[in-house]
Amino acid sequence: MQKKFRWGIIGPGKIAHQFAQAIHATENGILLAVGSRDLLRAREFAALYSAERSYGSYEAVIDDDEVDIVYIAVPHHLHYEYTRQCLLKGKAVLCEKPATINLRQFDQLAAISADRKVFYMDALWSRFTPVTLKMIELIAAGAVGEIKVVKADFGFKANYDPASRLFNPVMGGGSLLDIGIYPVFLSVLLLGYPVDIKANAVMAPTGIDASCNMALRYQSGAIASLYSTLLAETDNTAEISGTRGRIYLNRPFYRSTSLRLVNEEGEQSFELPFLKNGKEYEAMEVMSCLEAGLTESSLLPLSFTRDMMRLMDNVRKQIGVEYAEDVE
Question: What's the domain count of the chain?
Fold first, then answer.
């Protein structure tokens, strides 16, 4: 009989609603508890998704001995503290992206995970979707040859509110950490860590990046052109070009359910729909890892997340975005 895993969610916002729906799409996931700083909000969320327990604090979910895994969906600047609390309690963690505000915070959490032998994963759900797996399969089979260029963008027009999580530096605002992380993820997945990084940005009045552009160069001779913006709707597509062909991830590429391969043999399209909304695949990966007694995922290891945090720290240094957490 398949083991059941009991989830707790802290931070019942929009993305947490998506994840709760995803848990219900899995065979062995149970949403047991939800925590909010507003008890009424927690109760409403719990009722909507048939969660047995609702708490008026995040800590109460972490302290619940019957919760196996905590999904952390609080704003960026709180990721470090609540991941730390979970790991110190011996509680498995799936934390929304970005894993932390900076590399220094992430390294501290990774060290606790290793020391306590507690599972920890960044919730970069795009890594586990059927389209991503098919893309990797095609590339491994030589369908595009050697990758030479990766292009990816993510942009939407956000209403400017200096107090919102998107524009408030206290909350880790900025296009890079919120949405630029998806193009960065794709480049690290396909090409690894670059040997050269050139970045520039358009700054918001609050001192965060409203738009960010990145040009990356790799030891292999490949390049990546990535950008993110909160100022305009962009194509939100990705293109991987190699010596034999190209792969197009259809929009929006970070949650695409289709891709197109164009190479010397012609053109093929692949339709790969989600079971629910795509987040079910990361939930299943976490539960599979826990069932196997692992403390990190082989598909999204902590070393991968570390490369992403290191790259984004480098980009932020170049464009002049600094958060309070960067000051030791």
Answer: 2
